[in-house]
Amino acid sequence: MSRRKIILISITVLLLIILGAGTIFLTGKRSEKDQGAIQDNQGVVGSPIQSQPLASDKEAIKNRLISPLGEAGVLTENEDFRIEYYSPSLFQVVIKVVYVAEAKDKAINWFKKQGFSEKDICNLPVTFSLTPEVNQKLKGSGFIYSALPDFCR
Amino acid sequence: MKSRAAGLSILVFLTLVLVAPVLADEGKTIDQIAAAQKIPIASQVAHFYQWALGISGLVALGILVYAGLLYITAGGNASRQGDAKQWIWNALVGLGLLFSSYLILNTINPNLTKFQNLDLSQVKVEQVTGAPEAAKNLNLPELIGNFYQWALGIGGIVALGIIIFGGILYTISPGNSSRQGDAKTWIGSAIVGLVLLFGSYAILNTVNPDLIKLKFSLDKAEFSAPASSPVDIGEPPKPGEKISLGIAQQIGNFYQWALGIGGLIALGVLILGGILYTISAGNASRQDDAKSWLLGAVMGILLLFGSYLILNTINPELTKLKNLELIVNEAAKKIEVVNFQVVEDIVGFKKQLFELLQQADLVNAMSWLWIAGCESAWTYNPAIENHSSNVPDPAGACGLFQMSCACRASDPHDCGKGDVPTQVNNAIALFHERGPGYWDAADGSCGGGYNGHSILSR
């Protein structure tokens, strides 16, 4: 094999490696903001997501919140999250930003401001989800996302 | 022997690097792709590709059998044994080259192996409230985007054809060093051409990913209202309504267009250079021409985006064009994510899905709703194909619960195709049959592998 061909093949292989590395880098690339979001690696739940009976005063709070919605609807929405309700008892927080952990905390604080304790939040229950756009941005980042708040495990 | 060892090393390297993503790809059959696209030429090319690979494989297999017989009947004759070894070696190298071509194309861009056609139906299928007819029309960036995909695809197919040709040439020329040299030259040129072609993609993507996506702000502006517009537009625009842009926004848009169009021209030249190099087959003069084109294009890109760097160095605010930032309203967002086939009323859809899940599996209904979200990349799209592409495919979708698209006859549950109730029933049936391990999300965490602790209860 001539020296020229060896050089050509070597360069080709080198370029393939660079291209592969570049692809991995580009697809795995995330901003500093995203880096901060990749902290939501919680453990497993280990039991079905189910609602549990609330104390009567908390049940009253819940009823006050959901009464305008009927069977389903959006409880509240801001730039960070949207809280959806589904009858008979499921509250799903849809995170709209890549700062997932921060947005989760804000959503939990919203429930606390309504008068719910952490135990109540677990019993509502509250689950978390993402928008497709945020999911797309976090794809390939190694991000693992939990259904329930940390304190519900 | 030295050259054989080098060749073998490269093949092993390529196979090791490239085979993993291919094995991970749960691709559709050619027929499914063709059926989905409903365009005959794509189907014909795809069938030809399968035939070419198959026939070449059969030829190599025949040579292997022939060489095996030759070796067996050599009776210790060193010359005949040498011939047999030569045939075997060439057949193996040919096979490796043939199928490496598929692996290379698939790794660079899986769409190249799917032979996707110019599918105008995918463009703006989403109707915009208030302007349904206008939304169906193609615009320039989308047309250019389709052309770009075509150009890359055709370049890849040409290179693929040359690699297959080179592989066959190598396979059927044992001992003929001249023909083997020709074959190697063809293959080498094709590989370099491929690298150049898709190197252009990597370069543009690195400089500015929007150049690849071919998304220019002018489109968004047509459906958007400025965040702090210097122009008093009164009531917020309705989806689909065009608004007048201020001079600052027009300049900003022109800047982006100029960068984009400059990048596209450079891209076209890069592709041309890549194709020229690919088909040069060792012709030094033609290779020099190709190199000149490529160098010119790279210089052009450097100059274009050098201007961006200079502005950024002087004052980063100049490049951020913050005052031109537009708020993209909901209608525009839906256009942006057109490939997700957005479920219009996601709350309404989830409500119906949740009701269905409660009827089918009350204990686990909440868990199933969550699993459906995670498995469908939070689109809740019953026609979603898979996580990697998020492309809807009614012809063979994996669906809400990402049941395999393969729909193997041996596994009646292993197919998400069908309406939502069918998908729900299939998923629940599979769970009761085999447990929760099919779904990574069944452990209540989305994005990681299933670890055995299920949120589903039997």
Compile the SSE list and pairings.
The complex is a heterodimer of chains A (153) and B (458).
Chain A: H1 3-28, H2 32-37, H3 56-66, E1 72-77, E2 81-86, E3 90-95, H4 100-114, H5 118-123, E4 126-130, H6 132-138, E5 145-146
Parallel strand pairs in A: 3-4
Antiparallel strand pairs in A: 1-2, 2-3
Chain B: H1 2-24, H2 30-37, H3 40-72, H4 78-108, H5 110-114, H6 132-136, H7 140-171, H8 177-207, H9 209-213, H10 217-222, E1 225-226, H11 247-278, H12 284-314, H13 316-320, E2 326-327, H14 330-336, H15 346-360, H16 365-375, H17 420-434, E3 445-446
Antiparallel strand pairs in B: 1-2
Helix pairs in contact in B: 1-4, 2-3, 3-4, 4-7, 7-8, 7-11, 8-11, 11-12, 15-16, 15-17
Give a description of the structure.
The complex is a heterodimer of chains A (153) and B (458). By secondary structure, chain A is an alpha+beta fold. Chain A has one domain (31-152). In chain A, 46% of the residues lie in helices and 16% in strands. Chain A has six helices and five strands. Chain A has helices at 3-28, 32-37, 56-66, 100-114, 118-123, 132-138, and strands spanning 72-77, 81-86, 90-95, 126-130, 145-146. In chain A, a hairpin with a 3-residue loop joins strand 2 (81-86) and strand 3. Mean pLDDT of chain A is 79; it is low at 28-45. Chain B has helices at 2-24, 30-37, 40-72, 78-108, 110-114, 132-136, 140-171, 177-207, 209-213, 217-222, 247-278, 284-314, 316-320, 330-336, 346-360, 365-375, 420-434, and strands at 225-226, 326-327, 445-446. Residues 1-40, 115-138, 214-245 and 321-342 of chain B have low confidence and may be disordered. A two-stranded antiparallel ribbon of chain B has the order 1-2. Chain B is an all-alpha fold. Chain B folds into three domains: 1-113, no CATH class; 129-151 and 189-336, no CATH class; 340-443, no CATH class. Chain B is 64% helix and 1% strand. In chain B, helix 3 (40-72) runs antiparallel to helix 4 (78-108) and helix 15 (346-360) crosses helix 16 (365-375). Chain B has 17 helices and three strands. Chain B is flat. Classes of the chains: A alpha+beta (153), B mainly alpha (458). At the A-B interface, helix 1, strand 1, strand 3, strand 4 and helix 6 of A face helix 1, helix 8, helix 15, helix 16 and strand 3 of B.
